[in-house]
Amino acid sequence: MQIKIVTNYIVLVTSVKCQRIRVVGVDLAGSERRETGWALLDGRTLTVKKLFSDDEIIRETLDAHPLVVAIDAPLSLPTSGKMRRADREMHRFGLPVLPPLFPHMRMLTYRGIRIARILRSHGLKVIEVHPTSTRKILGLPPRKDPMVIQDAITKLGYNGDVRRKSLSMHEVDAILAAITAELYIRGLTTEVGDPMEGVIIIPRRSDERIE
Description:
This protein is about 40% helix and about 20% strand. By secondary structure, it is an alpha/beta fold. The protein starts with a helix and ends in an 8-residue tail after the last strand. It has one domain: Nucleotidyltransferase, domain 5 (2-Layer Sandwich). A hairpin with a 2-residue loop joins β2 and β3. The N terminus is likely disordered. α2 runs parallel beside α4 and α5 packs across α8. The chain has eight helices and eight strands.
């Protein structure tokens, strides 16, 4: 497992000049009654929280002044049918996602679109990510025990709450979203889908060419 992490992650982050990065990752729940994982990555330090209401999520994110906000939720609708080009391409890559208009995804989709629109109206860059795909591409452990994934994240050199407390799977996914945003700023990600319809941002695989 550690060999895969070195291959897929360390090669990426050491391939470009290092800079201090401040980003937010959000593992959005479909309802305000359920936990949303929220993570601020400032340099190598992670601050992680459980949030619930739209107002909490928006306030914490705006107060963090991030360069990029990465949200784990569909942030656009298909131009026709139930699946976007991004959803179909992710399936072809072996990284399946749930399409925005599947019955149990509708609430999450509309909530994600609403929150993204508000954050963008304040001048923030917002991207759609998929933490499960990020985890797979970076060679992190399977999504069974959040403690195992949390331990693997600390081995990548991150500190803060990831080392200080036991995190829920939603909080771990928020960290993975933030890591995707970090890689996005470094130019180490790939856009999947049609920009006119909506794209999902995933890390580049280690075998992809880096310009």
